[in-house]
Amino acid sequence: MPSFNRRGISGKGDSLVTKHNAILCGKRNVARVMNTFPPEFDTGNVLNNMRLSNRVYNQLKLHSYAEEKRMNRLHDKSEKATSVCFFNYLK
Predict the structure, then answer these.
(1) Beta-carbon count within 10 A of 42 CB
(2) Whole-number Å distance between alpha carbons of 42 and 16
(3) Which helix (H) or strand (E) holds 61?
(4) Burial tier of 29 (Cβ tally within 10 Å: 0-12, 13-18, 19+)
(5) How many Å separate Cα 6 from the centre of its chain?
(6) In the prediction, which pLDDT does 55 show?
(7) What stretch of H or E contains 18?
(8) Which of 11, 57, 71, 88 lies in disulfide reach of 29, CB 3.0 to 4.6 Å?
(9) Contact 44, 52 (CB under 8 A)
(10) Torsion sign (Cα): 54, 57, 62, 65
(11) For residue 47, how many C-alpha atoms fall within 13 Å in the half-sphere facing its CB?
């Protein structure tokens, strides 16, 4: 991964690369999927030479947030049901 200056450019002339290069962004998105998504979120077989577009990465990110909220709601329901049963038992 090339290092970019404050303008987002690396290299000169024919070897000029910007931070918006599709190949670099795709590889960066794959690295983000592997490092930042929770381990229980199934992303499939993501290889190092694979690239993800920004659109696909954003859809995966939103889906992971929704799944996390859904799992938290499911656990909250079971905890509330357990506490209600416990209070009914005490009466």
Answers:
(1) 8
(2) 36
(3) helix 54-90
(4) buried
(5) 26
(6) 94
(7) strand 17-18
(8) 57
(9) no
(10) negative
(11) 2
pLDDT at site 41: 76
- Written as six digits, the tokens of 58 are 């954003």
Could you tell me the two tokens for 41?
């979120």
What is the structure's pLDDT at 48?
63
Which amino acid, one-letter code, is at 50? Answer: M
Q: Residue 2, CB half-sphere, CA atoms under 13 Å: how many?
A: 18
SS3 (DSSP) at 31: helix
Q: Give the helix/strand (H/E) hosting 3.
A: none
